[in-house]
Every structure is written in structure tokens, then in C-alpha cells.
Design goal:
CATH class of the largest domain: Alpha Beta
Number of domains: 4
Structural class: alpha+beta
Order of helices and strands: EEEHEEHEEHHHEEEHHEHEEHEEHEE
Largest sheet: 5 strands, antiparallel
Number of helices: 10
CATH topology of the largest domain: Beta-Lactamase
Strand order of the largest sheet: 7-6-10-9-8
Radius of gyration: 42 Å
CATH architecture of the largest domain: 2-Layer Sandwich
Shape: elongated
CATH superfamily of the largest domain: GAF domain
Number of strands: 17
């Protein structure tokens, strides 16, 4: 006869599981005259099976948490006031993603280890002090009161120095709870089995479960199970921390993108708003210059001629200032175009020599007191496919930079050479030079080198010229760079592909 499993209760009220099997006793005629019955006590085996099922369910839930993170549908713990030993009620600090996950996992740990109480203590990796405590099997008031007492204290204050060293060495240890230095708390269990939670070489917390006697030693399987649970909990919490960190980084990136978008919108609007009055002012200056030319053509007294000469000088300075203002507006517009990928380029085959010559001649006409030399090392013309106006803009930006940061009596040199099949243009000055740490930053928009002072007024000086120059040259397939050292001047250079190669 097959065995039958039964649940029964003993006379003293204990619940037992038994397996009953029986076989009949027959006489010579085949009649049943009795039976043999065997009753086996399966209580321990049934409890082991239930333990295994509970442990498996808890492990599966923890594995799901490791894979799915905060998407796991676990109960969110309530938030209650912290009751301090003095009786004051305070609210706990906001929980991090790792803290919230610890509070979800501690109940699973209790199921896995089949214990009445369990704790997950998270540490601050930088200081090794306790950051957060999550308890199962205790009230939230007790948990928050404990948190108020132990937050910020070293782990060794809970475990003792020797135990803390063993936990750091990845050992599972038994900790005596009867001598903790915290008043106002009672402990239902005098000892706890504690396992380290590690990520690589870093101890991020500990996992503990209650035990029956201080210094008790569990069997190897129990120690192994606690250690395994601690490792899995550590992985889940670290995953949650990394996910939260990624979200913060993503939010920062989105905020930066939004700030840049608003800046671009503002620059575009401001540039167009500035262009309207500048156009009117430019027309007025041109009209005054035309009237002044007609007036100077007349036969005027000496005093009147002197006044017209003074007015002519004023108009010349006004034209210069108008050119600077228009350049500023164009630079602002170019910044917006670059950020939106819409900077205009009309590239055709052209010679590089005339572009450099025109830029140097314009700089010499504007700054008659400065010595600017052009050195065309190559005799043959260098053909490029480029937007000549934009390349001229780059050379002008380089020249304005050199004029601004070198003394008036020091010369500036523009050199053209061929390097590795590329046209190489360098604008050299004898200024104070740029510190190495600043040489990468100066190519960013609205950035000027720290610790470098202007030697003369030239150009706009808003930290846009080099940023725009880099964008233009890179759109042409070239590169930009600077060679400089404090006290030894600077050489700003760019390269362009040659069309005849």
C-alpha cells in the first residue's frame, strides 16, 4: 500500500507531520486477518522542505531585484518619526535609492535565512561609518531610534575592533550584542551572525541575523548561506546605487543641454535685435561722411577746415567702432549657427596666399603702429577648397588675439608652410604666453586664459574668436592648435588640406 502523508497534533499541542504506510496480513484462504502499519515522523524533513522552498523563493526575489532593480513590486516601507532616547520626535533623513532597496531586501533576507530578525547596515565608503540601518522583525520606531543612535559611528563600535577587522577580511562572524554602548535600547537576541557585504575590495555594509547564544557557532552550511545572501544583497544595492547615479548624471546632462539651448536662443535673439540699430547707425555714419566730404570740397576758412578735419577723425574712429560692433554681432550669430550646425560655407577652389595677404593688409591698415610680417615660405601657390571669407575670418581672429596680448613694440609674424601634405598657417607673437593648463580651455566659447592680461586694445575680446575659428577649420577638414609657454610668446596655428594633392 502506498504511503500517506498526514498532519497531526500531539496531546501536548505540538504539530507533527507523519508518513503512514500499511500492508494486510492474510490467512491461507486469502482472508485479511490483520495488518502491519509503519508510521514515520517526517516533521524535520517537512520543515526542511518548507525552509528550502522559502529560501528558494527569497533567492529568486533577490535575483529579480538584481536584474530589475526598482521595478520589483516589493512593499515600500512607511516613514514614521524617529523616537530618540530623550523622547524627541524627529523625521529621518531622506532615503537614497540604496537605502530604499535595503529596506525592501531585509524582509527577503529573513525569509531566506528563516530567522526572526535580520539587519542590513550600509556604510559610507569614504569614512567607513554607518550611513543607514534596515531591520526586519522589529518595529519602524525601533529601527529609526537605532538609526538615530548609530548613524555616523564606526562599524567597530557595534562589532568591536577584532570583529570589524575580520569582516573587512570577508569573514562571517558571530557578534555579542549584550555589551553595546547604546543606552535606551533592549535586545531580544544577545548574539548575531554577521556577514560582510562587499563590492570588489570595498566593504559597503554588513548583513546580520539573530542567533540564540553569544559566541554560538553555526554549521558550515548556515555560514555559507549567510555569506551568499550578503554577497547578493551587496550586488543588488550597488546596482541600485549605480542606477541612481546614472539618473543623476543623465538629469545633469539634460539640464546642461537645456541651458545651452536657452543660451543659443538668447544669443540668436540678441544678435538680431542688435543688428537693427547697428544698421541704422552705420547708415547715419556713412551719410555724415558723405556730407563732410562735400563740405571739405568747398573753399572754407581755415577755422572751418580745422573743424572738418577734427570731424573726419571722429568719423574715422566711429567707423572703426562700428566695424568692431558689427564683428561682435556676427560672432554671436556664428556661435548660434555653429551650435545648430548651420554655419554657412561656400567652398570653392582658391589660393591661400591672397587670403593671408588680404588679412594682413587689413590688420596693418587698422593698426598702423604695429609691425605685422607675412612670410610665404612656399613659392608655388597653395590651392585649397574653402570658403575664402571664413578662412580670412580665422586669420583675422588669430591676428586680433596676437595684437591684444602682445606689447605694441613687439612684431607679429604670419607664416605659411607645407607640413605633411597640409597647408600650415601660424600667427606668432612675442607676448607673455599661455600657461599649459589653460591651452585647452581657450578654444571653448566665452573663455579667456586665466592669468594672461591684455597688452593692447584690439578686436572684441569676448572669448568667441578662437571657438569660432576652430569650428570653421574643422568644417574644412583641418585642425587648430597653439604652441606657447609663459614668457615665450604664442604661436596659434591651423592646417588645411591642399586641393592639388
Amino acid at each position: 500500500m502506498a504511503a500517506v502523508d498526514l498532519r497531526m497534533r500531539t496531546l501536548d499541542g505540538r504539530e507533527r507531520y507523519v508518513s503512514v504506510s500499511a500492508s494486510p496480513i492474510r490467512d491461507q484462504a486469502g482472508r485479511i486477518t490483520g495488518a502491519v502499519s509503519i508510521v514515520r515522523d517526517r516533521t524535520d524533513r517537512r520543515q526542511m522542505e518548507e525552509h528550502a522552498r522559502a529560501s528558494l523563493g527569497a533567492l529568486l526575489a533577490m535575483a529579480e531585484a538584481l536584474v530589475a532593480g526598482t521595478n520589483v513590486a516589493l512593499e515600500e516601507p512607511a516613514v514614521v518619526p524617529v523616537l530618540t532616547p530623550a523622547g524627541a520626535a524627529t523625521w529621518p533623513s531622506p532615503l537614497t535609492a540604496a537605502d530604499r532597496m535595503a529596506r525592501r531586501l531585509v524582509e527577503l533576507v529573513c525569509r531566506l535565512l528563516t530567522c526572526q530578525r535580520a539587519a542590513i547596515i550600509l556604510l559610507d565608503p569614504a569614512t567607513g561609518t554607518i550611513r543607514s540601518v534596515a531591520l526586519a522583525g522589529e518595529s519602524l520606531e525601533y529601527e529609526h531610534t537605532l538609526m538615530a543612535l548609530v548613524r555616523g559611528v564606526p562599524l567597530s563600535q557595534l562589532t568591536g575592533d577584532a570583529m570589524a577587522d575580520r569582516l573587512s577580511a570577508s569573514d562571517v562572524v558571530t557578534v555579542d550584542l549584550s555589551h553595546l554602548p547604546f543606552q535606551g535600547l533592549s535586545y531580544a537576541t544577545p548574539a548575531a551572525l554577521v556577514a560582510p557585504m562587499r563590492i570588489g575590495d570595498q566593504l559597503i555594509g554588513v548583513l546580520g541575523m539573530d542567533r540564540h547564544a553569544p559566541g554560538g557557532v553555526g554549521d558550515a552550511e548556515e555560514y555559507a548561506l549567510v555569506g551568499t545572501a550578503a554577497r547578493m544583497v551587496a550586488m543588488v544595492i550597488e546596482r541600485e546605487r549605480l542606477l541612481a547615479e546614472r539618473e543623476v548624471t543623465r538629469a545633469s546632462e539634460l539640464a546642461l543641454l537645456e541651458a545651452n539651448r536657452r543660451m543659443d536662443t538668447f544669443l540668436s535673439m540678441a544678435s538680431h535685435e542688435l543688428k537693427t540699430p547697428l544698421v541704422g547707425a552705420d547708415l547715419s555714419v556713412q551719410a555724415l561722411a558723405s556730407k563732410l566730404d562735400r563740405l571739405r570740397a568747398l573753399r572754407l576758412p581755415a577755422a572751418a577746415r580745422a573743424q572738418t578735419t577734427a570731424l573726419s577723425e571722429l568719423l574715422t574712429r566711429a567707423k572703426h567702432q562700428m566695424r568692431r560692433a558689427n564683428r561682435l554681432v556676427e560672432d554671436l550669430l556664428d556661435v548660434t549657427r555653429i551650435e545648430r550646425g548651420g554655419i554657412k560655407m561656400t567652398c570653392v577652389s582658391c589660393a591661400l596666399h591672397p587670403i593671408l595677404s588680404a588679412a594682413v593688409e587689413e590688420a596693418c591698415a587698422t593698426h598702423r603702429e604695429r609691425a605685422i610680417h607675412l612670410e610665404l615660405g612656399a613659392v608655388e601657390p597653395m590651392e585649397i577648397v574653402a570658403d575664402a571669407d571664413r578662412i580670412g575670418q580665422v586669420v583675422t581672429n588669430y591676428l586680433n588675439n596676437a595684437l591684444r596680448y602682445s606689447a605694441a613694440e613687439r612684431p607679429i609674424t604670419v607664416q605659411l608652410t607645407r607640413v605633411d601634405g597640409m597647408a600650415h598657417v601660424a600667427v606668432r607673437d612675442e607676448g607673455q604666453g599661455i600657461p599649459l593648463g589653460e591651452q585647452g580651455r581657450i578654444w571653448e566659447r566665452f573663455t579667456q586664459a586665466e592669468g594672461v592680461t591684455k597688452q593692447a586694445e584690439s578686436g572684441i575680446g569676448m572669448g568667441l574668436g578662437l571657438y569660432i575659428s576652430r569650428a570653421i577649420i574643422e568644417r574644412h577638414g583641418g585642425q587648430v592648435g597653439v604652441e606657447s609657454a609663459p614668457g615665450q610668446g604664442s604661436a596659434f596655428w591651423f592646417t588645411l588640406p591642399l586641393a592639388n594633392l
